[in-house]
Automatic annotation (TrEMBL):
PROSITE patterns: VOC (PS51819). Residues 4-124 form the VOC domain. Pfam families: Glyoxalase (PF00903). It comes from Rhodococcus oxybenzonivorans. This is Glyoxalase.
């Protein structure tokens, strides 16, 4: 098997709201979109970030379509975590876990997008 691309695909009530959040605050760009579907990319991220409207008939099997990333974290490793934290706070992004440093050297914080998807920025210190 040769993998040529990868994607993280999430069911959300409003794909456009999540996509706009990721574009505005995290630097993603729209790769493609259709009714109920938005695919985003960043050249420095190894996957596409896809938002699908919950209840799309094309999502099969339908019984596995769940809520917006329930129990899921989208983690992005960054440089300059403190600068990013201050920037996102100034932009009014909802911070759900304030910045902290774990004993093993992970410095991180978590934010929530408009659909409740939790995004964690982390830097190893």
């Amino acid at each position: 098997m040769k993998v040529t691309a990868s994607a993280l695909s999430l069911n959300v009530a409003d794909p456009t709201a999540s996509a706009d959040f990721a574009k505005t605050h995290l630097g993603f760009v729209e790769d493609m979109a259709a009714d109920g579907f938005v695919s985003l990319k960043r050249e420095d991220v190894g996957f596409s970030l896809v938002f699908l409207r919950t209840g799309l008939e094309t999502f099969k099997p339908a019984h596995i379509a769940g809520a917006a990333g329930e129990g899921l974290l989208i983690a992005l490793v960054v440089d300059g975590i403190d600068t990013e934290y201050e920037r996102l706070q100034a932009e009014g992004v909802p911070i759900v876990t304030p910045i902290e440093t774990e004993p093993w050297g992970e410095r991180y914080f978590q934010m929530s997008d408009p659909n409740g998807v939790i995004i964690q920025l982390v830097e190893w210190v």
